[in-house]
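Write out the 3D structure for:
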Amino acid sequence: MLPKASQPLSRAKIPSKFSINAVLNKREEAVAEEKTDNSEEHLPKNHFTETDLQTEWQKFLEKIKEKDIVMFSAINGFRLSKKDEDTILIAYPSESAKSEFTKIQADFFNHFTHKVNHFRIKTDFVIDVALKKEILTKRKIFDKFAQINPVLKDLDDLLKFDFS
């Protein structure tokens, strides 16, 4: 069995003063730092109104309705409102609807930011169960009326109504 060395036998590579790779790496790091520092500062930040937001949201919904009716059904209940100059408040009915919205969120905000020329928009999400749309079946409608008028419940027991 061969004994193992506790430290590497060769010395660490020390780049020479004339190393091309070292110079190129330093330049790439400097360029990357410049890009990240100035990217947010020089973006346009024009004013937009609540009406602009609602108009573009309705146009976007119409476009989605033509392309993908399932996606439209999922995001139709969303309510967008302007919270302040840079923030849009998005109220959504359920987590599953929010996950569908995240798929197309970039498409809408890309179009909207170019339309209003405001590139510093942030979004806040708030769940609002009041936006959830309940599907009323004939049985649910009958039960609601039966609560108002108990005679209907007796009539249903007697005649065995079929609400399917």
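Helices lie at 20-38, 50-67, 69-75, 95-116, 138-148, 150-159.
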